[in-house]
TrEMBL record:
Name of the protein in question: Uncharacterized protein
Amino acid sequence: MKHWLIAYIDKLLEQNEQIYEFRAEGRLNKAAIEKEVTDHIVQRLYEQGRSSVGIKTCFNRNLGLYYIEIS
């Protein structure tokens, strides 16, 4: 699941999207996934020279729904 999610995030970053929505299902460590995805986005943006951005995360861990916005 992580590989698919990271590939999805990379695709959205290439398209300069500002909003990322995804769902983490099953018995995964949802807090770890949230941190890993956020860290990945920050790293990719830094590599693109966009180091002064804000990231807003909203989530419902019970349902596994995540909403990440870059500003």
